[in-house]
Amino acid sequence: MKLKIRNIVKVSFLVMVLVATSSVSFSQSKKRFKEVVFENIDSTLNIQYGEAINIKGNNEKLLLDVFAPANDSMKKRPLMIFIHGGGFQNNTKTGSFSSLICVGLAKRGYVSATIDYRLGIEKPKNDTNYFEAMYRAVQDAKAAVRFFRKNGDKYGVDTSQIFIMGGSAGAKTAMHLAYLNQDEVPNYIDINKLGLLEGTSGNEGYSSKVSGVVNCWGAMINYKWLNKGDVPIFNVSGTADKTVPFDSSYEYHGFKYGALIMYHRALSLGIPTGYRPFINTGHTLDNNKFLYPFMDEFKRRYTSKKCDQSRIWR
Q1: What CATH code is assigned to 15-312?
Q2: 3-state secondary structure of 183
Q3: How many CB atoms lie within 10 A of CB 225?
Q4: Are the C-beta atoms of residues 79 and 163 closer than 8 Å to each other?
Q5: pLDDT digits over 196-245, tens only?
Q6: Residue boundaries of the structural domains of the chain
Q7: Global confidence as pTM
Q8: Could you give the 3-state DSSP secondary structure of residue 299?
Q9: Can you list the positions of beta strands (E) in the chain?
């Protein structure tokens, strides 16, 4: 049976952010992080967080937008960084989905950010060059994480609670940022050309580690890069996705292991996880931006420290 998607704007499905709430005081309101508690938000646009050489050989400025609740008395808030999709070739940080996520989270008491990163795939457009495009995106996203570690006080961010989320290519970037280590990079990737995975896109000297990942209709090249002790992951996908696999039945330019596989991999390793499938629904949930609110249940399950209670929501 196809699930009916509620016609209510809800971004509280961002379950991984709830990892943060276990260590944040609820003195302002017990509803903070779960419901809209701020009607107004402050936004700061086109902040340069770094720069790097793009595939055209030009030095490209890397920009991000920041959103935060207005007149908030809490000085350090969890941060969600959102990475847009577009097959590593198009789109920007200002898309409708990124706006839904970032504004929705800010109204719930988080700080959120959406980033641009270097786009472009060199020819021929084979699996290797898609990997390199993802590699550059990871380098830039790591620079964005480091930017907020460097400037946490300025933006009211709890630097111990930085999460990352993406849609499609952005989700691929987010997962490889969190789970791919330098010694796991395949030998066919030219490190002399690309540099190290940590990159030099900006803000060197700060950690690029994140506290959790939200994977929206993305896939990894190798699910075994997710290992015991890695950070939690929450997955969302449509089970009729013909662009990026929700399982492992096909691959997208080398990206083969989708939400279902990542969920089971995390579960087998005791990593807090969850999975929300949308039955008979395609890529980007067929462009429907409305999702079920099931954040509270995952918070309860995660903070109980009983990882075997991770589950699939239906």
Answers
A1: 3.40.50.1820
A2: helix
A3: 18
A4: yes
A5: 999 999 999 999 999 999 999 999 999 999 999 999 999 999 999 999 99
A6: 15-312
A7: 0.88
A8: helix
A9: 41-53, 59-69, 77-83, 111-115, 157-167, 212-216, 233-238, 273-278, 311-312
